[in-house]
């Protein structure tokens, strides 16, 4: 499927229309952003790693019965996806304390939560993605009660599938962000799942293996992404149209 026109250029991905109005091309660039896009740096190979990482994870989620927008890989840096009508809300699941939760409550990092938390944030860089509630979503019409219930259920299912997948690879899934949209009126997982949008710590050393390496200037950003990809079995060989990596599970 050919790219037609640029639809939207985000902080790390560019989205293109195709000849089919129901499908888009996601291009994963090497750019990495922090502080709501105020700090951006390009890392060689990052677009390729995140594209293949995302494809691998989305296929695993589909296989577990979670509807995703993923269709197939198109190249090292591009994937074909369903065009969703996006809901302007970020869904965050947390298994341990980290990041904005630690700052907001003035607590220490790495406390195991009694039950995973489900949080909602409004997508708005200028306002730094403020935390909102289900009542806010309903009051302002960002998402209906039925859609929110579905998003919450699917987010917890994603947590079950991926916590196990990363645990088997010696990694702790600390927290992650998901974005959903509607495809033919059905809540469907969109955007991406990669080390840019989750926290992954080594089980033994608690070493950070995700975008916190960039946020905290820890170095070894791409090395960590690549190691995580290898540990969970993401095929990173150069793209070929017939390789098994591209077949749906
Ligand atoms: N996250 C994201 N995009 C955002 C905000 C958060 O992908 O705009 C991810 C982040 O990488 C982490 C989780 O969501 O895995 C929870 O992030 P948090 O609320 O702690 O915010 P942060 O301190 O990371 O900005």
From TrEMBL:
It is an enzyme of class 6 (ligase). Pathway: Purine metabolism; IMP biosynthesis via de novo pathway; 5-amino-1-(5-phospho-D-ribosyl)imidazole-4-carboxamide from 5-amino-1-(5-phospho-D-ribosyl)imidazole-4-carboxylate: step 1/2. One of its GO terms (molecular function) is ATP binding. GO terms for biological process: 'de novo' IMP biosynthetic process; cobalamin biosynthetic process. GO terms for cellular component: cytosol. It catalyses: 5-amino-1-(5-phospho-D-ribosyl)imidazole-4-carboxylate + L-aspartate + ATP = (2S)-2-[5-amino-1-(5-phospho-beta-D-ribosyl)imidazole-4-carboxamido]succinate + ADP + phosphate + 2 H(+). Keywords: ATP-binding, Ligase, Nucleotide-binding, Purine biosynthesis. Residues 7-231 form the SAICAR synthetase/ADE2 N-terminal domain. Its EC number is 6.3.2.6. It comes from the Bacteria. Belongs to the SAICAR synthetase family. This is Phosphoribosylaminoimidazole-succinocarboxamide synthase. The lineage of its organism: Bacteria, Pseudomonadati, Pseudomonadota, Gammaproteobacteria, Enterobacterales.
